[in-house]
Design goal:
single chain, 483 residues, alpha+beta, FAD/NAD(P)-binding domain, D-Amino Acid Oxidase, Chain A, domain 2, Arc Repressor Mutant, subunit A, nine-stranded mixed beta sheet, eight-stranded mixed beta sheet, globular, binds flavin-adenine dinucleotide
């Protein structure tokens, strides 16, 4: 008989990983299953990376409440988990007089949602805050509680903290259906076998509709994915300090221009229906649309400075636009979380806290773990250290003296640490997301061969099995001439 868990969590995006971290405070045995080879593959790591202040969601919705609560909670949690977060504040910049009048509506909505510290800024104040802004700007809504975060590290750090506190993670493990007894869920079927538990939580993001349908819940709810494309600029070519939004119009929210925790300028996202839930491809048309749209806020942005493009998929639900966080009456041991589009990243800690609340309401006896730690430490980031610190680190571990990625100055020591952490990297992209290797101007042109070699040695696998992001993305097909 397989081990019986207290809780099985399906999906290790930000919602599943953060819930695992919160639940690990209690005497629970917890299993997280993830169909991909790593945590946070998409969309939790492919988004605008903004901890929104909370003036955008409609007052009275779960989105509005959890966004404002989550924003506040991240201040502490980012510190506990060593997640890079910059409290930049955000500006909704009005271009022209008509848009300035509309800022008042957003301000009022923010007040209803409980957003702290907002102010309407005049043109001069806006220009002082962001000199690159369109000279036709007339003013802005300033929300000081907004921040930018490293979204992948947010997921990884939550998962690592959960793992440190005893949560088990299984990757490349796909949910295939429920196991029920007398109409009660007692476990799940996966490609790696059956697992049994008292509770099952659905945090499968884009696939949350399919999971809930297997449990017989909300048969009419459907995720209709919408793609958002992004462009990243070379940090040495352009920089700004702010998160800049357009004033929303009937056409939508428009393209935002933002700084990131890594110092690059990022622009996006557009919003177009995606045919498939795995369609992460960017298009020439989309790139033009995003670049053109961004010029309304920062006209000086130039195509030649773009160094990377990516796309994320919104898990937009068909039934209204609010988050679903519930224990449905018909399946009393099933925690159902769905429709978590933006601001899901900002709201994740509040969603996790709400899950604990739902368990308590259902009569679950939550016994705190005596030795629970809220802390997850980051591994060293070599290029940010002083000369003295670098020398000390190299003395302790000579692998830190070997630079592998020249643009971003990432060392062999960082690569090995990322592969030996509580949630280890198994692929090139896994290492890249953890260390920022290969993200500079040369976009990995120099580091690939050495990293492939390191992965092969560390995992003790032939180089033909080393992959970019899991099965079917191997770099090397075969050896030539025996070399
Ligand atoms: C373009 C865009 C911009 C955004 N910008 C922001 C922003 O700036 N701020 C903000 O707060 N939010 C933003 N969001 C929203 C935010 O990214 C999401 O709300 C959040 O990432 C959702 O997390 P999740 O854990 O629910 O889902 P996901 O990240 O989708 O995680 C679900 C996980 O479940 C796994 N899974 C699915 N099916 C199965 C299965 N059958 N078996 C096992 N595992 C499975 C998936 O592989 C995945 O890892 C944005 C989203 C997009 C797309």
């Amino acid at each position: 008989m397989n081990q019986k868990y207290d809780v099985i969590i399906i999906g290790s995006g930000i919602v599943g990983s953060m819930a695992a971290r919160f639940l690990s405070q209690y005497e629970f045995s917890i299993l997280v299953i993830e169909k991909e080879i790593d945590v946070g593959m998409c969309p939790s790591a492919a988004n605008s990376a903004i901890i929104h202040a909370g003036f955008d969601p409609k007052p009275g919705t779960l989105k509005a409440k959890l966004n404002v609560q989550g924003n506040k909670m991240w201040e502490n949690i980012a510190g506990e988990l060593s997640v890079p977060m910059k409290k930049t504040g955000s500006l909704v910049a009005a271009i022209g007089q008509d848009e300035f009048t509309k800022l008042g509506e957003l301000y009022e909505r923010g007040i209803s949602n409980g957003v702290p510290g907002m102010r309407l800024l005049k043109r001069e104040e806006l220009l002082n805050k962001e000199p690159l802004i369109n000279p036709n700007a007339t003013g802005a809504l300033w929300a000081p509680s907004a921040a930018v975060i490293d979204p992948f590290t947010a997921v990884l750090a939550s998962a690592e903290n959960a793992a440190i506190n005893g949560v088990q993670f299984l990757f490349e493990t796909k949910f295939m259906g429920f196991i029920a007894e007398n109409k009660k869920i007692i476990g799940i079927k996966t490609n790696k076998g059956d697992f049994f538990s008292r509770w099952v939580m659905n945090s499968a993001g884009l696939y949350s509709d399919e999971v809930m349908h297997s449990a017989g819940v909300r048969p009419d709810f459907k995720i209709l994915p919408r793609k958002g494309e992004y462009l990243i600029f070379d940090a040495s070519a352009v920089s700004l300090n702010n998160v800049l939004f357009q004033v929303p119009s009937e056409k939508g929210k428009g393209i935002l221009v933002s700084t990131t925790t890594h110092g690059n300028v990022m622009i996006g996202p557009n919003s177009n229906p995606a045919e498939k839930k795995e369609d992460h491809a960017t298009t020439g048309k989309g790139i033009e649309e995003v670049l053109e749209g961004s010029k309304k806020l920062v006209p000086s942005l130039q195509k030649k400075d773009i160094i990377a493009v990516y796309a994320g998929l919104r898990a937009t639900g068909n039934a209204g636009k609010d988050f679903i966080v519930e224990i449905p009456k018909e399946t009393p041991n099933f925690i159902n979380i769905a429709g978590i589009e933006s601001p899901g990243l900002a709201s994740a800690p509040a969603i996790a806290r709400m899950v604990i609340g739902l368990l308590k309401e259902s009569g679950e006896n939550l016994k705190p773990k005596v030795n629970w730690t809220p802390i997850r430490k980051a591994t060293p980031c070599f290029h940010k250290l002083s000369h003295k610190e670098k020398a000390g680190l190299i003395k302790k571990n000579p692998a830190y003296g070997r630079i592998v990625c020249r643009c971003e100055e990432i060392t062999e020591g960082e690569i090995l640490d990322s592969m030996r952490s509580p949630i280890p990297a198994f692929t090139y992209d896994g290492i890249k997301r953890r260390t920022w290797l290969g993200t500079g101007r040369c976009q990995a042109g120099f580091d690939y061969p050495r990293v492939i070699e390191i992965i092969s040695q560390e995992l003790k696998i032939p180089i033909t099995e080393v992959s970019k992001k899991g099965k079917d993305s191997e770099f090397i097909i075969r050896k030539t001439k025996g070399s």
